[in-house]
Amino acid sequence: MAPAPSSTSSAITLTINGEKYPLSVDHRTTLLDALRERLDLTGTKKGCDQGQCGACTVLVDGRRAVACLQLAVAAEGREITTIEGVADGERLHPVQQAFLDLDGFQCGYCTPGQICSAIAMIEEHAAGWPSAVTDDVRSEAGPPPLTAEEIRERMSGNLCRCGAYVSIVQAVAQAAAVDEEAAA
Asked: Within a 10 A sphere around the Cβ of 89, how many other Cβ atoms?
């Protein structure tokens, strides 16, 4: 049972990976700190704590969000998916499988954020959202080819200090191809 809220805290319920978690949180608590420190969901990593590295990327209503800049109270009523919730039981998400198949990681610290970002990025691309390097941004042109340049641009908010970018781009491309096959 969550303690009663004070004037600087609120009782909230977060929906994370399909489960509801009641919490009393200080209004300044970030979603990242609520996940890691209050709910023991430590797959989401704390990198820069300034929204610049992407290590804390989670999905909020299916869209990418850096959890270190989102307040926990603002996430109430939203569907939050962390790295712990992307697999389907024992079956890995296609992005997770591609990262394993193609060594899309070295130390693995950024990998949860990279995977969450890639999942949303593939959906954004399939929906026809352009990027800064998309040649034809007209909606009737449809999704641009998912080239390495497109993937690099779309994943640019996620840093890898080990430099596994070549494998990350290959893994995202492989997972996107699996996603396209499943949609066909």
From this structure: 5
